[in-house]
C-alpha cells in the first residue's frame, strides 16, 4: 500500500487484458473537461498502443521523478509538438474545393515530425506471424509522493483530502516546473491562459458520489476505482491478489493508478506450430514497465485461469470479470443524471 499523509487515497486499477483501445475513456474525459479552444491538444486521459512512443512522444525517456535524496529531478519539458494534436484540417479543400475525391482529409501541418495522441495506434512490434501490441490508458497517477507538487514554486499543486493531485489555477505561475518533474508527462500547458492543466480525478463528481468519467464510460469494464484502504476490488487486486501493479514504480512517486499486466498468446514457430515455452509479449518488456513483480502477477493470473478451466472457482477471476458493472465504481455509485436533474 502506498504511504500517504491524506485521510484516504483514491486509486484506479486498469485491466489491460480487457482494454480494447476504443478511446471511450479519452473522449469522455475530453468532452467533459477540455472543451476550450486553448485545450485542443490536451488529452488528460489517453490510450496508447504499446510498444509505442505514446504521448508526449517518447515520454518514457523524458526524465523526472525523484533522485536518491528524494528531491524532484529536472526532466525534459514536453513541448506542444511533443504532445501533437490540435491540428487544423484541410476541410475547405476536401469538401468545397472541387477535388473530386483526389484529396484526402489530413492535418495541414507538415508531414515531417507530425505527431498526435494516438499516432502510432495499433503498430506495436514484432513480425508476422508473431506481431503483438496492447493498449494502455494513461492519466495523472495522483501519486502519493507527487514530484510535480514538490517542484511547483507557487504551491498551486497539492494533494486534497481524497488523495487527488489538484491545482489552484488562480495561483499557478505558469513556470512549468511541474511538467519537468512529472515522470509520466501527463501535465499540459495552456498557452492562452498560461497555466498548467491535468487530470483532476473528476473530483467534482467524486464529491457527489459519482465515479470518474473514464471509469463509468468504459464499455469493456476495464477500469476499477475505489479507496485503497477500504474493502473492494481495488484493494483486493492491489494488496490481496497482488496482480495490479504501478507503472514505472522506480520513479519514486508511489503512483495510484495500477495495471493488470497483459497476458499474451504463445508465439508460432517457423512451421506454424505453437511454442508453448514462451509468451508473445517479451517478459522483459513488461518488467521494464511494471517491475520484476510482473512475473508473479502473470503467473497468478494464469494459475487462476487454469483453475477455472478445470472446473474450479476463482475469486480473482470473478473480480476481474466484473459481472455487474457497478462493481467497477467502488463507493461512487450515484448516477450523474440524477445529480444533474436535482442540481
Written description of the protein model:
The chain is of the alpha+beta class and 343 residues long. The chain has two domains: 10-84 and 119-342, Alpha-Beta Plaits; 85-115, no CATH class. Helices cover 25% and strands 12% of the residues. The chain has helices spanning 24-33, 80-83, 91-96, 147-151, 177-181, 203-206, 213-217, 233-240, 283-290, 293-309, 315-321, 336-342; strands at 10-15, 46-50, 134-138, 157-159, 165-167, 187-190, 195-198, 223-227, 245-246, 257-260. Strands 8-1-10-9 form a four-stranded mixed beta sheet. The protein has a two-stranded antiparallel ribbon with strand order 2-3. Strand 6 (187-190) and strand 7 (195-198) form a beta hairpin. Residues 1-6 have low confidence and may be disordered.
Amino acid at each position: 500500500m502506498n504511504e500517504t499523509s491524506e485521510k484516504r487515497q483514491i486509486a484506479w486499477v486498469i485491466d489491460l487484458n480487457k482494454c480494447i483501445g476504443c478511446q471511450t475513456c479519452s473522449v469522455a474525459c475530453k468532452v467533459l473537461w477540455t472543451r476550450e479552444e486553448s485545450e485542443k491538444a490536451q488529452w488528460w486521459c489517453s490510450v496508447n498502443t504499446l510498444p509505442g512512443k505514446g504521448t508526449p512522444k517518447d515520454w518514457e525517456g523524458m526524465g523526472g521523478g525523484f533522485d536518491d535524496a528524494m528531491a524532484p529531478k529536472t526532466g525534459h519539458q514536453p513541448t506542444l509538438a511533443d504532445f501533437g494534436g490540435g491540428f487544423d484540417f484541410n476541410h475547405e479543400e476536401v469538401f468545397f474545393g472541387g477535388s473530386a475525391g483526389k484529396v484526402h482529409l489530413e492535418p495541414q501541418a507538415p508531414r515531417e515530425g507530425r505527431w498526435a495522441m494516438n499516432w502510432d495506434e495499433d503498430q506495436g512490434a514484432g513480425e508476422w506471424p508473431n506481431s503483438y501490441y496492447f493498449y494502455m490508458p494513461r492519466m495523472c497517477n495522483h501519486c502519493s509522493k507527487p514530484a510535480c507538487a514538490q517542484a511547483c514554486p507557487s504551491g498551486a499543486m497539492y494533494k486534497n483530502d481524497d488523495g487527488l493531485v489538484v491545482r489552484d489555477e488562480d495561483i499557478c505561475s505558469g513556470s512549468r516546473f511541474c511538467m519537468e518533474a512529472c515522470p509520466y508527462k501527463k501535465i499540459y500547458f495552456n498557452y492562452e491562459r498560461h497555466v498548467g492543466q491535468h487530470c483532476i480525478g473528476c473530483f467534482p463528481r467524486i464529491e457527489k458520489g459519482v465515479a470518474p468519467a473514464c471509469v463509468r464510460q468504459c464499455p469493456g469494464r476495464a477500469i476499477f476505482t475505489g479507496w485503497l484502504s477500504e474493502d473492494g476490488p481495488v484493494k483486493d487486486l492491489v494488496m490481496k491478489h497482488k496482480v495490479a501493479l504501478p507503472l514505472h514504480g522506480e520513479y519514486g512517486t508511489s503512483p495510484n493508478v495500477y495495471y493488470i499486466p497483459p497476458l499474451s498468446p504463445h508465439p508460432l514457430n517457423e512451421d506454424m506450430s505453437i511454442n508453448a515455452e514462451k509468451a508473445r509479449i517479451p517478459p522483459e518488456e513488461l518488467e521494464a514497465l511494471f517491475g520484476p513483480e510482473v512475473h508473479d502477477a502473470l503467473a497468478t493470473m494464469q494459475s487462476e485461469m487454469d483453475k477455472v478451466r478445470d472446473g474450479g472457482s476463482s475469486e480473482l477471476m470473478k473480480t476481474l470479470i466484473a459481472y455487474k458493472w457497478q462493481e467497477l465504481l467502488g463507493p461512487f455509485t450515484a448516477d450523474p443524471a440524477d445529480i444533474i436533474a436535482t442540481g
